[in-house]
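2024-03-11 09:14:02 DEBUG pipeline.ingest accepted 1 chain
2024-03-11 09:14:02 DEBUG pipeline.ingest length=70
2024-03-11 09:14:03 DEBUG pipeline.predict start
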Amino acid sequence: ALALDPSAPMAHNNLGLIYQAQGDYKRAEKEFLQELAIYPDYENARLNLSRLYSLSASASSSPAGFQGLP
């Protein structure tokens, strides 16, 4: 889907979920943030990003408690 349309709804979110399940938290974070940059009101991406930060070892370094997120 991303190859055909990089702004396809939910594509980055779904890819983020796949990376998260594989334990690739950096790539998952990138995809969730990309989804939120395209669709700032997409609550599932915001929720998935918060879950990712709670799972990852860098939870304490999450960007200012999510301040500045779209």
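2024-03-11 09:14:41 DEBUG pipeline.report The chain is about 55% helix and 0% strand.
2024-03-11 09:14:41 DEBUG pipeline.predict end
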